[in-house]
Design a protein that fits this description.
The structure holds two protein chains of two kinds. By secondary structure, chain A is α+β, with helices and mostly antiparallel strands. Helix content of chain A is about 35%, strand content about 25%. Chain B has a five-stranded mixed beta sheet. The chains are: A alpha+beta, B alpha/beta. Chains A and B meet through loops of A and helix 2 and helix 3 of B.
Chain lengths: ~425, ~120
């Protein structure tokens, strides 16, 4: 094969296949073929490097090569294609790098050789200029199409991000004996994470919500606003029979446990029936904390188990008490109870934490969360900073694929704060 | 190109059951293949589906959404009120898939079986 290709006739055939040289006559092709140099290049070798001045153009006889800017692939080209011609024609720096992806056979032609061959044939010169302009036009069109698509995509991402940011609480209630801290690190592609902290109207409890809506993009962001608002509205107003009662002097008494359950069932039923066709769901942890007693009532609907790091070194996982919400109109959730004591820290998070991956593809995992959190006594804020640093250093150069949302609450017995 | 293989089988229990044996990863790129195949068998008369997940090593949220959509197609004439689907059940999920099912609490909504005969006869 290699011997056959070294013959001038076969080289002419290779050059003739190239669109770029199709207007050239037999004589010019023969001259170029005779003076071209044949190269056998192993896979993975960079033949031209962006930014460098080059004097050769290359014709691919066999093998696949990649045209790229650093890591970004611009095109994959193969037999019959040419590269490096622009820098030869205009004597400017190489506009892109080209690296072989498989063992390749190339013909290279020096700038001087090229011009010399063309100088004897004005028609050939015209044909090459025509081909170059044609290619320039195609490139401009391609860049236009790509940037329009990219702008539409970026715009959608921007809308999603704005919706998400708008729906995170602007401020949270301040209580003397509770220390609250949050971390929200959005992924490039909008995900549906949310958290919320608010005081109930009818009870002294503090509501703590963290959730993750399935899917990505604007759709997920919109459903996030729906889940978050329904949970908030149903716990603030819905369970008192009527929102009007909130301003009246008489309040119905409803227990925190009933309120919690009712809020989850209402939210689930509303989305599962009104938006049944969307099949959108969320995992949600919803807790009601009595700041006086430290009693925490909670429902965990298919969410990563929040963890209580006890001051005395013990660890408790608040495992699921029901399935994800939003899919099936009839659902059942158990309300569980746990009590926070002096110095205990409640940590809730979304799967962007335990499922953060490093370059080897390993998961950060619940196990690593437990290890990082082993030392006790940190403030809620310090705790989250240490956790986030650990995630970042574990992830290394790997990309962030999901939102990282964390909420930490440190409890102190009232009066001791 | 992501692909998902679905083998359609039939079994007779108390009612005729269509068994969909799924092979591949069920994710954003493939979930529609499963959903379309289910729609096709429902269109041609299937009323009870057993989803055999023995060949699925990964199922993302798109997969769970597809399962919900299938359950909706099968239950469209039902009056609501049942917690678990009587028309759609799952068979033999692999460990990684079983873990996600447990994390999301999907076993609250769907029956899961390890043995095909028991599953078929449970409808």
């Amino acid at each position: 094969m290699e011997t056959a290709l070294t013959s001038t006739e076969n080289r002419i055939e290779t050059l003739r296949k190239c669109v770029f040289l199709q207007g050239l006559g037999e004589k010019v092709l023969r001259e170029l073929a005779a003076k071209a140099e044949m190269l056998r290049v192993a896979a993975g070798k960079t033949i031209v490097t962006r930014g460098e001045i080059g004097s050769k153009m290359y014709f691919i006889i066999s093998g696949q090569t990649r045209v790229h800017h650093d890591e970004v692939t611009l095109a994959n080209i193969g037999p019959g294609d040419v590269f490096g011609e622009m820098a030869v024609l205009d004597s400017e720096k190489r506009s892109a790098s080209v690296t072989t992806q498989s063992d390749s056979l190339l013909l290279s032609i020096e700038r001087e050789v090229f011009y010399e061959a063309l100088s004897t044939d004005p028609a050939a010169f015209k044909a090459v200029i025509h081909a170059v302009l044609q290619r320039e036009r195609e490139i401009i069109q391609e860049v236009k199409t790509r940037s329009t698509k990219l702008m539409a995509y970026e715009k959608e991402m921007e809308i999603g991000r704005r919706i998400q940011a708008d729906f995170l609480p602007k401020s949270v209630p301040k209580l003397d004996n509770l220390e609250l801290a949050f971390t929200f690190e959005a992924a490039r592609e909008v995900a549906g994470d949310f958290y919320d902290v608010f005081k109930l109207n009818s009870l002294p409890h503090l509501a703590i919500v963290i959730g993750d809506v399935c899917d990505k993009g604007v759709g997920a962001a919109l459903f996030m606003t729906l889940f978050r608002s329904l949970i908030r509205a149903s716990s603030l107003y819905g369970n008192m029979g009527s929102a009007l009662l909130d301003t009246g002097s008489q309040r119905e008494t409803i227990s925190a446990s009933e309120l919690l359950l009712n809020s989850m069932l209402t939210t689930n039923r509303y989305i599962a029936t009104t938006h049944a066709g969307s099949s959108m769901f969320a995992s949600v942890f919803f807790g009601l904390l009595d700041p006086e007693s430290g009693e925490l009532l909670y429902v965990n609907a298919g969410h990563e188990s929040p963890i209580i790091f006890r001051q005395n070194g013990e660890t408790e996982l608040l495992d699921i008490t029901g399935g994800v919400i939003g899919l099936f109109p009839v659902a059942g959730y158990a309300v569980e109870k746990v009590t926070l004591k002096e110095g205990d820290l409640l940590f809730t998070y979304t799967d962007g934490v335990n499922e953060a991956r490093n370059v080897e593809g390993e998961l950060f995992s619940e196990q690593r969360i437990l290890e990082v959190a082993a030392p006790r006594g940190n403030s809620a804020e310090t705790f989250l900073r240490i956790m986030l640093d650990a995630i970042h250093s574990f992830r290394g150069a790997a990309a962030q694929s999901d939102d990282i949302t964390m909420l930490a609450l440190k409890y102190q017995t009232p009066g001791r704060a | 190109m992501a692909t998902l293989n679905i083998l359609v089988g039939h079994a007779q229990g108390n009612v005729p059951v269509t068994v969909l044996r799924v092979e591949g990863d069920i994710d954003a790129a493939t979930h529609k293949i499963l959903q379309d195949k289910a729609a096709e068998v429902i269109d041609t008369g299937s009323t009870h589906i057993l989803l055999d997940l023995g060949g699925v090593n990964y199922m993302g949220s798109a997969g769970f959404r597809a399962i919900h959509a299938i359950s909706n197609m099968l239950h469209k004439d039902d009056t609501p009120g049942l917690l678990k689907s009587t028309h759609l059940k799952l068979l033999n999920p692999t460990d990684p898939v079983a873990r996600v099912i447990k994390t999301l609490g999907f076993d609250v909504y769907l029956d899961i079986y390890q043995d095909r005969d028991t599953a078929v006869n449970s409808f």
